[in-house]
Write a structure and sequence with these properties.
With about 375 residues, the protein is α/β, with parallel strands linked by helices. It is built from 17 helices and nine strands. Strands 1, 2, 3, 4, 5, 6, 7, 8 and 9 form a nine-stranded parallel sheet that branches. The two termini are about 35 Å apart. The chain binds flavin mononucleotide. The site of flavin mononucleotide has 22 residues, from α11.
């Protein structure tokens, strides 16, 4: 394990992810709720932030590092299965590693047993996690059938028992990941939010879709705002954020304290810069190649230069191409034309013109191989 890749210790480094100072974001985040930064330090940790949401695969360490460079304040590990971690599974431990640049790094835990969730949280704290995030949003059949993840949205009392057991065991802050509900017709986020907060959660991450909806519908930000108004801990809104205009239309007048971005950050890791500055940034083609190369370099540093490492780097790189190709330089007019449908939910238009622009917009696996090869060989224009 390289020293800069360990989750622990935090080396006394400064909290470089200071709350957002940019005027544009202060306008939108926590509007109508000026108390957060002056409130408890735990609340301040989760307020005024633009975070990278927890993601299996997509939230790999080198990608988090890239997002951090573009301004992600909060980062989260890939989902860790609490039972496996506690049982000593070697597969889970690497997921708890963080890069030194990740100032506010949380470990996300999934499970249904209060004891093992609490024990896993204690392990994460020992290894240097700044907070733990308890995942009650995972929609995967395998997880839900076992009564974990989103299945617990149907059982607020059990959900509360898991939070309470974790609270009793660890001193680090606890965030709780919720969806608007389980069944499409029965959004119950107000109930699960209450159960989580009463049991000791310090913050809530609310993805505004039910488990049944998966990604079919637009996220319900009105419901996220209602949750934020109903609890006295910071609520981090999540769902469909792709452009600065998404924030500008969803946040004003709400008490939503922060936002987390998942697919938007996979499509364009520079989204954090855009959201913080409150304006779009359309990188040139050389800049886009350079960003991909930067990911390659970070991944190589993390996974290694040897054959085994490079096999993994390639696998992750090609996986990321599956999102990067969806990038389009949307304008505010595009945003208005699609509204109320979020742009991220619309089909990206075909790209014509410059061959490299067409290549980078291609969904074809064979084109992703070409992109990989060119990044590897540094065979691209420099700006
Ligand atoms: C590839 C991928 C993997 C994900 N894995 C997780 C996960 O492990 N834990 C979790 O809480 N959410 C996970 N999510 C859900 C996201 O954190 C987020 O809640 C959801 O995608 C909505 O945000 P978005 O509209 O910005 O994508 C994942 C999403 C994606 C796209």
């Amino acid at each position: 394990m390289r020293p800069d890749d360990t989750c622990s210790p935090r080396d006394g480094e400064a909290d470089t992810a200071a709350p957002l100072g940019g005027r544009s974001l202060v306008v939108y985040l926590g509007d109508g709720h000026e108390g957060w930064p002056e409130g408890s330090p735990v609340h301040a940790l989760f307020a005024g932030r633009i975070g990278l949401a927890a993601m299996a695969t997509g939230g790999n360490l080198p990608y988090r590092r890239l997002c951090r460079e573009f301004g992600a304040d909060l980062t989260c590990s890939e989902m860790v299965l609490a039972d496996k971690l506690v049982a000593g599974s070697r597969a889970e431990l690497p997921l708890l590693r963080r890069h030194a640049s990740e100032a506010i790094f949380g470990v996300q835990l999934c499970g249904k047993h209060p004891d093992s969730m609490a024990a896993a949280a204690a392990r994460a704290a020992e290894l240097g996690a700044r907070f733990v995030d308890l995942n009650f949003g995972c929609p995967i059949d395998l997880v839900v059938r076992r009564g974990a993840g989103a299945a617990l949205l149907e059982r607020p009392a059990k959900l509360g028992a898991i939070v309470a057991a974790t609270r009793a065991r660890v001193a680090i802050p606890i965030s709780v990941k919720l969806r608007s509900g389980y069944q499409a017709q029965k959004p119950n986020a107000l109930d699960t939010a209450r159960a989580a907060v009463d049991a000791g959660a310090d913050a809530l991450v609310v993805h505004g879709r039910t488990r049944e909806q998966r990604y079919r519908r637009a996220a319900d930000w009105a419901l996220i705002a209602r949750v934020a108004a109903s609890v006295d801990v910071p609520v981090i809104g999540n769902g469909d954020i792709l452009t600065p205009w998404d924030l500008q239309t969803r946040l004003p007048g709400t008490r939503i304290a922060s936002v987390m971005v998942a697919r938007g950050a996979l499509i364009k890791p520079w989204i954090f810069r855009e959201l913080k500055q409150g304006r779009a940034w359309h990188p040139t083609l050389p800049e886009r190649w350079a960003i991909m190369r930067r990911y390659y370099d970070f991944a190589t540093e993390h996974f290694g230069e040897d054959e085994r490492g490079q096999t993994r780097v390639k696998r992750f790189f090609l996986w990321h191409c599956g999102f990067w190709h969806r990038y389009r330089p949307y304008t505010e007019e595009d945003f208005r034309a699609a509204a109320p449908e979020p742009l991220i939910q619309t089909r990206a238009a075909a790209v014509v013109g410059e061959p490299d622009a067409v290549l980078l917009a291609s969904a074809e696996a064979s084109d992703h191989e070409i992109v990989w090869r060119r990044v590897l060989d540094r065979d691209y224009p420099v700006g």
